[in-house]
Design brief:
Shape: globular
Number of strands: 24
Distance between the termini: 20 Å
Order of helices and strands: EEEEEEEEEEEEEEEEEEEEEEEE
Structural class: mainly beta
Number of helices: 0
Length: 334
């Protein structure tokens, strides 16, 4: 089971993976996945994490072919080095999958789900039209159409949250509209129950997470606080942190609002929130362009620099909390 005392850790990158411990201790896992079958796959991309498990896309060509045999999903536990290779999804090349996410709650079951969201074209935009769901309990995929009334386009770069038996993602309502109205899209693991939850504000960047037992939402906006055209403007990043204290009410409560500016030594850097700490009101930040990684304690207004990143590093950052349980249902790994 996941221990709430374990530090949250982060890593990023595609094919070249890196790990950073927020607590500053040595990395307890190897994101290169050296424990997988040697020489089976040339390329491995980290796709998603959920409660101690990691979802990867594995393939042998730098650009995955339409041939289903060239591509596999693998779910693994980085701490115990146990893993499962998923069977191929039928007609994968004939369907547009906008986002693939992992759903797992070790407090409920040792089984997990992988959900692929399918989108269909609608004029100048696209919208969620269904899902393909893999269950480790059945070992197979199922296909379900969407029961959403609204037309919603998902934001692929924002992480999902598995909460109350439903997977939640951020999307834009009415994709072809100029209005910026965002919402959470939620679906259960049978693909039969769907719902939307309006978000309190729309911003340049968003992040959602399960923190302190509730759904949290963080929005990020940037502005030149001098309103000047100088070569070195002072950039202020405004962060608002919201909590869905009563899930059934769908009403968000503003917990904190803060601006990261010159007083914190972050002049000329723009930041975005990409993760929220599971046990406190701390958000994790990456500078626009992926140069620096940092954290900000919203309650105590404390900014902490974590590390500098490679300038060519691709902007994929996944939070990870170690899972020390040996259970990984029907695992293939030794």
């Amino acid at each position: 089971m996941v221990s709430s005392t374990q530090p949250t850790n982060l890593w990023g990158g595609v094919r070249s993976h890196h790990f950073a411990s927020v607590s500053g201790s040595a990395a307890p896992v190897y994101p290169s996945l050296r424990f997988l079958q040697p020489n089976k796959y040339k390329y491995i991309t980290h796709v998603d994490t959920c409660n101690g498990l990691l979802l990867c896309a594995c393939f042998n060509k730098e650009t995955p072919a339409t041939d289903k045999d060239e591509f596999r999903y693998v779910v693994c536990n980085l701490t115990t080095e146990r893993w499962i290779e998923l069977p191929p999804l039928q007609d994968w090349a004939n369907r547009f999958h906008s986002a693939t996410r992992l759903a797992f709650d070790p407090a409920v079951s040792s089984h997990f789900h992988v959900v692929e969201f399918v989108e269909s074209n609608m004029g100048m935009g696209s919208y969620v039209s269904g899902v393909d769901i893999f269950s480790s309990q059945t070992g197979s995929w199922i296909r379900r159409d969407s029961f959403l009334v609204e037309k919603i386009t998902l934001f692929r770069g924002i992480r999902s949250v598995f909460f109350g038996g439903m997977l939640h993602l951020v999307g834009k309502l009415n994709p072809i509209s100029i209005d910026q109205e965002y919402a959470l899209v939620a679906v259960d693991m049978e693909g039969k129950a769907w719902k939307t939850i309006r978000l309190p504000v729309s911003s340049s960047y968003e992040a959602i997470a399960l923190s302190q037992g509730c759904l949290y939402y963080a929005s990020t906006t940037e502005a030149d606080v001098n309103n000047s055209k100088k070569k070195n403007p002072v950039i202020s990043t405004k962060i608002t942190l919201w909590c869905l204290e009563n899930y059934d009410s769908k009403e968000w409560v503003l917990k904190h609002s803060a601006s990261i500016d010159e007083s914190l030594g972050t002049t000329r850097l723009e930041w975005r929130v990409f993760a929220i700490h599971p046990d406190c009101d701390t958000v994790f930040l990456v500078s626009i362009g992926g140069v620096r990684l940092a954290s900000y304690d919203m309650q105590h207004q404390k900014f902490v620099h974590i590390l500098n990143l490679e300038r060519k590093n691709l902007p994929i950052y996944l939070p990870y909390v170690p899972l020390f349980s040996e259970a990984l249902a029907d695992d293939d790994g030794q």
